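User: Need the bound-state model for zinc ion:
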Amino acid sequence: MAFDYCVHKLTGSVQHYSWGGTKFLPQLLTIENPNHAPFAEYWLGVHAGGPASVEVNQQSVLLSDIIASDPVAALSAPVYEQFGGLPYLFKVLDVKDMLSIQVHPTKEYAKVAFEKEEAAGVALDAPNRNYKDQNHKPEIMLAMSEFWLLHGFKSEAKILETLENSAEFQVLAPLYKSEGLAGLYTFLMEMEQAQVDSLLGPVIKRALRNKQDGKIDKTSPEWWVAKLYENSHGIYPIDKGVFSIYLFNIVCIMPGQGIFQDAGVPHAYLEGQNVELMANSDNVLRGGLTPKHIDVPELIKNIKFKHIEPVIIEGTKPCMGESVYPAPTQDFGIATIKLGGSYSFEHEAQSLDMFLVVEGGCVVNNQMSVKTGEAFVVFPGNKLNIHASGKTLIYRAFVPSIAAYSQHEEN
Ligand SMILES: [Zn+2]
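Assistant: Bound-state model below.
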């Protein structure tokens, strides 16, 4: 029987990375977690590392298979022509422990660097392989809780203040003044481990004391440095990523707010729950706080050495309950839909759209009921009517370049 490209339930894949929390995702997804395993990420997409599946006549079929069997029907002709597949990966994250410090390449650079690694014969799954594909990886995330992250280099004045007000970092101030951000960061990332340990040892010990004494809060880099080491046996060898905690902006965003991370902006998630939408790519250059491969020269090539004032994104004024979060990329778009019990949301999908219900529940097209933690996929050209059964919050992922965001008319 031919597949019906309309509306179907969608089930994602859980990633149990060690930094994940043990409660949030099991609760959201109604999964028992008797052994308190970490549930770090929930993926809705076609990534081979965690593919989502679609419910078809009570059976489960991979979304990637459905797209492969008729990409034009599943994605629309323009999206298929432009991207050759589903351009985005939609995720929910529960960050209990800090993630690695990272940066993503531009599309142009990823293409060249990928081909270089291919030509050099570095296997795709080799631990020292940097570029897994030829794509960029812009990311937008919306906070589901109070969410803390590192995002871009602080202002020049703030970095200078950090250096000059620290007994250990003072020696770095002249270098920063003469060589600038790139000179300072490169120097720190290339520093010998013994020197890193002797420079950062007292910094970490003081941070641990200050956190224990309640002298610092989450706005201070010391608080995060202390969190990183407070439960570990010994602090050596010290991770070079600690430098970044002092050099980057510490940002807190609240539920309903978002932030966009473009190529070249170094970042790291610190703590909280969020929804994240990114281009379908694995290209990550890491700068610490990870056991994974760190290629300092490639990291330096991909970082934009400029001071950043973080831009917190607020959604547009709601239209029939939907608020769109503008992201400067063609690969994806994201919106929240907030409904009460009294009115419906009308929508005509222009792309492969995914909906994830995180609060409340709804009935779609008078036939499919969707509960908290459930998701559904809508293929292009289908009309939707979403009727909430009470206070309901839904996230919608879509492809904006094609899905010329339609003004929803009331029925
Ligand atoms: Zn990232």
